[in-house]
Specification:
The protein starts with 6 loop residues before the first helix and ends in a 6-residue tail after the last helix. By secondary structure, it is mostly helical. It has one domain. The longest helix has 33 residues, at 33-65. The protein has helices at 7-30, 33-65, 71-88, 96-123, 126-129. It is elongated and about 50 Å long. Helix 1 runs antiparallel to helix 2 (33-65) and helix 1 runs antiparallel to helix 4.
Amino acid sequence: MPRIGALLLLSRQHHTSLVVARDARRAVNEKDATALSVAIADIEAHWKTVMAAHFDEEERLIRIAENTLEAQAVARILAEHAELRMLASGPCLLEPAVRLRRFADLVVTHVRFEERVFFPQLQLHPCIASAHADI
């Protein structure tokens, strides 16, 4: 289902997050401390420039359409957002390779779930499906 309305930009931003996840996975596979540090800096920068606002917008849309969404899907999205915030937004207690691997794996599964399951649910809500993203 093609994205429309408020979901169009969010869907496009998923691509940039997948690229960051791919790069994080590559850094883990290199097994080089410098590559790991660069990848961590990249995910933290991506958090500040894209993901934080992206999550805020998705969560705003969830509040608008919550009564029409599957509760289990909402719970999953919010739980994954919380974990991704922890992994991407700054200091983390996990070892760098573990952190990057978990970030990469979770971004891929999260984006897949949103695009295949969750966004189609959101898109059915009349306010979200409107031509303008500024609801």
